[in-house]
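Late entry, evening session. Most of the bench is empty. Finally got around to the prediction I had been postponing all week. Sequence below, unchanged from the version circulated by S.P.
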Amino acid sequence: MSRVRTRPTRDDTREKLFEAAARVFEEQGIGGASIEAIAAAAGFTRGAFYSNFTSKDELIFAMLEDHVEQSVRRCLDLLAQHQNLADFLEALRTMDRSRQDPLGRSPLLHMEMILFVARAEKRRPELAKRLRARRKLITDIVTATAKNGGRNNALNPEWTGAVVLALEDGFRLHRLIDPETTPADSFLRAITDLHRAIGVASA
């Protein structure tokens, strides 16, 4: 009886490279990590790496893109189930983060990759696309939850999206620097408090 060999799909290969790259980046630093080390950590040859990405920079952009896409998908799924902002925030708080992509599981690596890309001016437009996608996601959430809460005119969704995103990144950085005084749920607690304050002010 012949044995059928199943070749990994392109998505499987990319996912393994993402996971391997995250481990190598954390161990060796993004700048010091080589393509050979990433490919070996994933169990692939150098040729397998180049069949998916032309460079380490392209791999990094792909990891950031994948992180944004997964974040958008996850949040929109939650929003479809919890259109009230308080319920949505609670669903975010209790979400299982162990199954997220490498950047979702490691805020430090996520921040390091953003800084690595931002240091080169020519790379910044690509990074800006990811920033706009994250901002649009928050703007859509603000719009949907405000409508469901009867506050259509209470907030400027675009500006609120920008403020909320800056708040999230700020708390992420603060937690990396001083985790003792910055609990893991600081961002969600802040958004919950702001939501309550806006509710009182508009009542």
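Two things to note before I forget:
Confidence is low (pLDDT under 50) at residues 1-6.
The domain at 56-202 is CATH 1.10.357 (Tetracycline Repressor; domain 2).
Will write this up properly tomorrow.
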